[in-house]
């Protein structure tokens, strides 16, 4: 497995697979190195991770996706720890993410040391759990 910054060559893959971001924002996220592409041993894309900043000053992991056949193999953990290490090197002391209360991801993040730090409730949506981790 290899983790690379996304490039413009990854644009089509990202917009085809990531339904949670406006297409018009993808290139700026690529140029700001805020999207990582995860590749397998033969250099095929098998997932991505994208982040931004909460309040413009706290790294916030917006999305991590690992293709079905590669899940539960430690790749997600490796990517999250990779990102946390980079954020620590940049001087950040705290990172954030969120997940829906009806998703299994909350347990994944808690195993990695994230703690529940609040929630968001939008009309007609399941509860969004906000998680933080000191790094």
How many strands?
7
Q: Order of strands in the sheet with the most strands?
A: 1-2-3-4-5-7-6
CATH fold-level name: Aminopeptidase
Structural class: alpha+beta
Query: How many structural domains can be distinguished in the coordinates?
Result: 1
Percentage of residues in helical conformation: 25-40%
What count of helical segments does DSSP give?
4
Keywords: Acyltransferase, Transferase
Enzyme class: transferase
Domain N-acetyltransferase: 1-135
InterPro entries: Acyl_CoA_acyltransferase (IPR016181), GNAT_dom (IPR000182)
Summarize the structure.
The protein is an alpha+beta fold and about 140 residues long.
3D architecture notes:
The chain is α+β, with helices and mostly antiparallel strands and about 140 residues long. It has one domain (about 1-135): Gcn5-related N-acetyltransferase (GNAT) (Aminopeptidase, 3-Layer(aba) Sandwich), CATH 3.40.630. The protein contains four helices and seven strands. It has helices at about 10-15, 25-30, 75-90, 105-110, and strands at about 1-5, 35-40, 45-55, 60-65, 95-100, 115-120, 130-135. The protein has a seven-stranded mixed beta sheet, covered by helices on one side. The longest helix has 15 residues, at about 75-90. The chain starts with a strand and ends with a strand.
């Amino acid at each position: 497995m290899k983790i690379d910054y996304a490039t413009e060559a990854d644009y089509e893959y990202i917009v085809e697979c990531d339904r949670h971001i406006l297409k018009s924002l993808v290139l700026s996220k690529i140029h700001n190195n805020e999207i990582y592409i995860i590749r397998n041993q033969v250099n095929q894309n098998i997932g991505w991770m994208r982040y931004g900043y909460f309040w413009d000053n706290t790294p916030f992991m917006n999305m991590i996706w690992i293709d079905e056949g590669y899940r539960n193999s430690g790749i997600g953990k490796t990517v999250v720890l990779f990102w946390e290490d980079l954020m620590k090197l940049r001087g950040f002391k705290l990172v954030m993410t969120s997940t829906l209360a009806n998703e299994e991801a909350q347990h994944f993040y808690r195993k990695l040391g994230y703690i529940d730090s609040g929630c968001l409730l939008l009309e007609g949506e399941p509860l969004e759990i906000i998680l933080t981790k000191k790094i």
